[in-house]
Here is the input.
Amino acid sequence: MNKLNPLKFGIIGCSRIARKSVIPAILKSEFAELEIIGSRTIEKSEKFSSEFNCRKNGTYDDVIFDDSINAVYISTPIGTHAELAMKAASAGKHVYCEKSSTDSFTSAKEMVECSKNNNVRIMEGFMFRFHPQHQKVQELINNKKIGNIDSFNGSFGFPSFPEGDIRYNKELGGGFLNDSGCYPICASRMIFDEEPLSVFYHKYNHPKMDVDVKGTSILIYKNNKTANITYANGNYYQAKYDVWGSDGIISLDRAYSVPSDFITKINLQYNIENSWNGRKNKIIEIPATDHFLKMIDTFCMEIAGKIKSPFNFEEELLNQAKVMEAHRRSSDTGKLIHLEELN
Ligand SMILES: NC(=O)c1ccc[n+]([C@@H]2O[C@H](COP(=O)([O-])OP(=O)(O)OC[C@H]3O[C@@H](n4cnc5c(N)ncnc54)[C@H](OP(=O)(O)O)[C@@H]3O)[C@@H](O)[C@H]2O)c1
Here is the structure.
């Protein structure tokens, strides 16, 4: 494919998600180009580069200081994102940083400030937001198909990772609030299209490793709307949410991590008359979509000034990081945390 003025990407970290989803999407995008791949070990960067026919490889610094790239993709452990993102931004590179962007609200603010000071953009990689199924949900809500929306219920969890995985390492920003709880939290903010006022969060730590593996939280939004969030590592796979309204309920079974060839289904339940027999179910199929590709296209086109992204990258990153911080504070103190307490 001949690409016209693509954003040239350097990859920081030869991760599983880079290999499986993000590098293939960069290669597919007509607005992005793969330029260089960096790793802590030269052998790994060489292997990845040959796998993807990438001309250049090297260390993380070789990527960050490569004059021919415009953007970096960071998919290293969460606890390492902030330093790498700020180094790249200071070198004048736009940053696409994997979720969770970082493990503290303070470092999130530093990341955004550093990007602004260097006139580059920074985006947290919540690709699920770019899947058209959520736009359809939003359309059903806006058209009052389920009346006034009142609560959101979201859960995301899966079987355990092998021992030694980055997610079980506290120093690397591990734990499953950062890894998977962050998705339904982000989805509730997207569905209500506002920020929660307060958060109460309970977590359960792994008996041996000092990281959270399960947790549940209540987010209270304006007018007593609530979001109930559950995440669990070591459980049967779940990636769902329901939006419950006065006249119906919308359910998504595959809300967060969706393979690009997977046809998703939205289940809409509503009443056509006010009785149990008057309940109707409608299944709405959404065509298979590569949400990584959609996100990369949006990132590149927004930077090129060709479109306006539906999500303001920096504001979104900060708002999400603030809600995540409220979770940490709530579990540290055992109290309900009001978002206005955090600044
Ligand atoms: N958006 C999504 O769907 C999605 C899905 C999965 C994961 N993620 C996110 O992507 C990131 C990576 O997750 P992953 O599961 O793909 O991880 P992974 O396979 O374990 O890869 C992480 C990479 O980070 C680099 N790294 C740097 N410092 C490291 C250290 N001290 N220990 C281990 N690795 C280190 C390594 O690359 P080098 O050896 O090449 O330096 C390693 O390959 C995380 O932020 C995660 O939350 C996103």
